[in-house]
Structures are given as structure tokens and as C-alpha cells.
Amino acid sequence: MKLLILNGPNLNLLGIREPEKYGNKSFDDYFSELQFQFRNVELSFDQTNIEGELIDKIQNARKDFDGIILNAAAYTHTSVGIGDAVAAIDIPVVEVHISNTFSREEFRHKSYISPIAKGIIVGFGLQSYDLAIQSFLNTKDD
Ligand code: DQA
């Protein structure tokens, strides 16, 4: 199984950025742990701060991957274009968030991705990504 983890804006600063909300670990370090943990999965990881690039990466992933684990970060709450890109492709997308967006500001309760996502994993810290990979492994024959 080939899965793409796609992170949106400011998630390149994980480990440095608001550690009380997002933890102390960089995503590169966490990604190495995931690759070790899921040696049977072909995992790729990409990140961009730019909305249009995120749309390009979602579109392109449909050719090369069985699914996307998407943390669109702030664009989750604002981007009709990213929601449309998720709707346009026929591979499943699992939406993840590190923090529990529903326990935070009202504007973080809205997601343009959730209505089209295969599922949503929110609020488990970096473990949200681990759980998302497991969801693909457990439901791959659906
Ligand atoms: C986030 C939650 C978003 O509201 C926020 O803008 C982020 C990170 C999360 O993973 O908890 O940048 O997507």
C-alpha cells in the first residue's frame, strides 16, 4: 500500500511552533518513526505552505498513491479549492489534525475537507497520523 502524508501551512515548524499545542517533535523525526513502525507500507511525506501547491499535490497523488493522509492545517477552515481537489480525486483521503480543533476557536470547527473525507482523526497529537495509517490498513478491503 502506498500512502502520502501531506501537511499544509506552518506544519514545517512542528517542534518549534506552539509546542504546548503541537508538541516538541519535528515531523521529520516523527516520520522516521512511522516508516520504522509501518515497514510494510510505502509511506511518503510532503509539505507546503502554499494553497495552490497543496491542490497540485492532491491532484498528482491520485496517480501514484492508494490514499492520502491530509493535514491541510489552517487551509482546512478556509479553502473551498482544497475541498474541491479532495472531491475531484478518486483515492480516499483521511483528514487529520494534531490538536482537537473542536476544543479550540470557533473558526477551527469548520472544515471544507470533512464532508468529503473518508474519515477524520482529530486531537491525538502526532499519533493522529499513526491512527490514520492504521485506518487504511484495517479497511483496505472495503
Ligand atoms: C491543525 C489545526 C489547525 O486549526 C491549525 O491551523 C493548524 C494545525 C492541527 O493539526 O491541529 O495549523 O491542523
Automatic annotation (TrEMBL):
Please list the reactions this protein catalyses: 3-dehydroquinate = 3-dehydroshikimate + H2O
Query: Which one Pfam family would you cite for this protein?
Result: DHquinase_II
Query: Which residues of this protein are catalytic?
Result: Y22, H97
The protein's superkingdom reads: Bacteria
Q: Which keywords does this chain's UniProt record carry?
A: Amino-acid biosynthesis, Aromatic amino acid biosynthesis, Lyase
* Site residues (Transition state stabilizer), renumbered to this chain: R17
Documented EC number(s)? 4.2.1.10
BP-aspect Gene Ontology terms: amino acid biosynthetic process; aromatic amino acid family biosynthetic process; chorismate biosynthetic process; quinate catabolic process
GO MF, one example: 3-dehydroquinate dehydratase activity
Q: Which residues bind substrate?
A: N71, H77, D84, I98, S99, R108
Pathway(s) it belongs to? Metabolic intermediate biosynthesis; chorismate biosynthesis; chorismate from D-erythrose 4-phosphate and phosphoenolpyruvate: step 3/7
Annotated InterPro entries: DHquinase_II, DHquinase_II_CS, DHquinase_II_sf
Listed under subunit, the entry gives: Homododecamer.
**Entries under PANTHER family matching the protein:** CATABOLIC 3-DEHYDROQUINASE
The family classification in the record reads: Belongs to the type-II 3-dehydroquinase family.
**Function per UniProt:** Catalyzes a trans-dehydration via an enolate intermediate.
> Protein name, please?
3-dehydroquinate dehydratase
